[in-house]
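quick one: 4-nitrophenyl phosphate bound model?
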Amino acid sequence: MKILMVCLGNICRSPLAEGIMKTKVPDHYRVDSAGTISMHEGEHPDKRAIKTAASHHIDISQQRSRPITRRDFEIFDKIYCMDIDVFEDVVSRTKNEGERQKVSLFLEALGDHQNAEVPDPYWGDMKDFENVFQLLDKGCNAIKNQILKYES
Ligand code: 4NP
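yep, here:
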């Protein structure tokens, strides 16, 4: 199983989602993240995201931002988007129904949060990052349960 987390800049939400998800799935799973813009390409995650993850004993400090590529649609089985703008952008890059089927909104995994978005903490403070962490943790649990059920 190969899972890709996608947000706008790949420095706040999706690096956290990648780090959290890696703690929940078996080692042979591949979990990665990417952004829809290349503005922060090559950068480590936002310091506040690194600090928030560290406070939950998760190290995301070695990740590097990268933009999503065409190849991602071939490699990954599941592509989770952090908000509706990102989802629409990612869907617009798909070339066929098979690729389209791989893409979903991250929080759709929480049944009662249909269409809910993971808020962008970039312009916020540490409290916003912690709130995002909690939301991502819930979402990752739900996704993990869905995938394990699907695979069994
Ligand atoms: P992310 O947050 O999409 O969760 O990584 C953002 C990072 C950078 C920008 C916006 C959101 N930016 O405008 O540079």
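The CA atoms of residues 137 and 146 lie 14 Å apart.
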